[in-house]
Amino acid sequence: MGLTARIRTRDGWAVSHAVVTVTDTTGAQVLRAEADTEGAVRDATPLAPGAYTVIVTAVGYAPAASSAIVTASGRAEVGTVTLARHGGSELPPPGPWTIDPAHSTVAAVAQHLGISSVHGRFTDFSGTIGIAAGDLAQSRVEAVIRAGSIDTGNAMRDAHLKSADFLDVEKYPEITYRSTGLSEAGADRWTVHGELGLHGVVRPVDLDLVHLGTGADPWGGTRAAFRATTDLRREDFAMNYNQVVQAGIAAIGTTLRVELDIQAVRGTSLPAV
User: Fold this and answer.
1) Which residues does residue 55 pair with via DSSP β-bridges, in sequence order?
2) Which domains does the chain have, with CATH numbers?
3) Euclidean distance between the first and final Cα of the chain, in Å?
4) Helix (H) or strand (E) segment spanning residue 144
5) pLDDT in tens, 8-29
């Protein structure tokens, strides 16, 4: 009996201070419960059969509301409720923003032997974001990644990835991305259109972007958070090395899933901390 729910941020973190309020069709409150440290709500108070509105609130997040139908069981199973940071449905304020490498991650995932994944990241990168004041489509992103900073947690594998079989970092030390436009893809979702320069090849690459929110930092600045993903085919960038372990199964997958978790600081410089 009662209410169950899971409260999460858009990137999957538990919201431990969330409050869930349930109201009936007259607007009267019939139940109020708080999420635990795991973002879970479990309240055993039985609810009478009928239709209810479930409202989830948390400091720093936009409220979320949904409908719930309670049957004779007396249970309201809300499932996972995702909260967006205040300001997450729109892009950050116009002007220049600088990517903070200390609080950002540029990662890639490749399939290995057809049964598991290998995760890697680049540890040396920089970039800027320019949010247009008028036409948001004119907003711009530029980033540079040092190819030799690849880190998969294995020195032998990293050396192979830096070799001419893959990144060829001596010949192509930088990976670049320059946006060419921006288009809205839904509520708080955007598509960044741009060109990726990798291994001596420049190709159009779109990023699926979510703005996670904007807020103040402890150093007197303003930060914005984004998550972006895209898939790349290695052969599109002239990286064709592979070993076939059995018919149809390659040692290393031909598709890379790129995952970007980005914090940007408003302005053209970063704080000392």
Assistant:
1) 21, 65
2) 2-83 (2.60.40.10), 95-266 (2.40.128.110)
3) 49
4) strand 140-146
5) 887 778 888 889 999 988 888 9
